[in-house]
Write a structure and sequence with these properties.
Mean pLDDT: 79
Structural class: alpha+beta
Strand content: 15-25%
Distance between the termini: 98 Å
Radius of gyration: 56 Å
Number of domains: 3
Oligomer: single chain
Shape: elongated
Length: about 350
């Protein structure tokens, strides 16, 4: 009976020992010795099962008296044994401004509401050695040293310096424009209008040179020729011949011209109507004769040119006052350019002052 009780106690003790081995806490320091003001890093590592939860210690200002905590990193987690175990580490950056040998006590970690302690550490802080026997070895503060000139630091200032000149010239031009307030003068070319008979003769010459009737399309030829004559009659006799029939045009002209001039015109219109509406195909000499009839009609009915008449101008001058919109645009341009120039000058002045000082 005593033998079984002994075996049971040993088994229970072994189980507790195994349970205690599930959590392992270890503290490391990267430097055991530092000078005053230097920094060291303390790494706290905790190995636990994947289903356990750990809470790291929090140090608001100091780790121990004389050792300050400057920074605490975020925990870093690694998986072990096929993700059955976790290795979590956290770094504490520390420093000291008093030379001494510091004892860093174990760091307490909470795992599933149970406290576990790490190993203790030590930190030796040295002061800077001073040679009190040779005070002349001490040097005073160094004077402020000006950095070397680097073009890359000044390219923007140089660009602004070059931009100021054209901006000033444009500003002067805009101020001059808005102060003189002179009207805007524009010159427009004018195409002088030809007399009706000259315009008609130009179109007849074009039809003659194209020789449309020789291409086997008399309808186009007579349509163009009668349109020229209708336009001439409209401009010469001041009635809308373009909307009238051939007979209406002849009747209207009987009151203003002799019958001999209208005889040739009537023959031209009759041939043109036959071609357009009856598909008549006139002979070659008939086409030439009708072209001559058109020329003779224009020549016999044209208005005689007055030698004393002044030629029409080919160019006219238009004087316009400057609009309010133009004045507003000029004013806005002046304000914008002035602001840019002032900004450039202030920036350049600041850079030059920094160089001289």
């Amino acid at each position: 009976m005593k033998k079984y009780i002994s075996i049971l106690l040993l088994s229970t003790l072994s189980i507790f020992q195994l349970l205690g081995q599930n959590v392992k806490v270890e503290a490391k320091i990267d430097s055991l010795q530092i000078l005053i003001g230097e920094q060291a890093k303390v790494e706290l590592q905790v190995a636990i099962d994947a289903n356990q939860r750990v809470v790291f210690p929090v140090y608001p200002d100091t780790l121990v008296k004389g050792v300050e905590v400057l920074d605490v990193s975020k925990p870093d987690t690694q998986f072990l044994n096929n993700k059955q175990r976790l290795l979590i580490s956290q770094e504490y950056t520390i420093t000291s401004f008093d030379s001494a040998l510091y004892y860093l006590p174990p760091m307490m970690v909470d795992v599933d509401n149970k406290q576990y302690a790490s190993n203790a550490l030590a930190l030796k802080v040295y002061s800077i050695p001073v040679d009190t026997l040779n005070p002349e070895a001490f040097f005073g503060q160094k004077t402020v040293m000006n950095p070397d000139f680097v073009w890359g630091d000044w390219w923007l200032t140089i660009v602004f310096a070059f931009l100021v000149i054209p901006f000033i010239l444009i500003l002067i031009y805009l101020i001059t424009r808005i102060r003189d307030n002179k009207p805007i003068i524009r010159k427009v070319k004018v195409e002088p209008k030809l007399p009706p008979h000259q315009a008609a003769m130009l179109e007849i010459d074009r039809i003659k040179n194209e020789k449309i009737w020789q291409k086997g399309d008399p309808k186009v030829y007579y349509t163009q020729l009668t349109d020229v004559i209708r336009t001439y009659i409209r401009d010469r006799f001041d009635f809308n011949a373009m909307e009238m029939t051939s007979s209406e045009i002849i009747d209207h002209l009987l009151n203003e011209n002799d019958k001999d001039a209208l005889k040739d015109l009537k023959e031209l219109f009759e041939t043109a109507d036959l071609v357009k509406f009856a598909k008549h195909n006139p002979l070659m000499n008939e086409n030439d004769a009708n072209l001559v009839n058109a020329i003779e009609f224009v020549d016999e009915t044209k208005i005689p040119e007055d030698e004393n008449i002044k030629p029409q101008p080919t160019e006219i001058t238009i004087i316009e006052k400057r609009s309010l919109r133009t004045k507003i645009i000029l004013g806005c341009g002046i304000v914008l350019l002035s602001a840019c120039i002032i900004g450039f000058l202030i920036y350049i002045g600041i850079q030059i002052y920094n160089i001289l000082m």
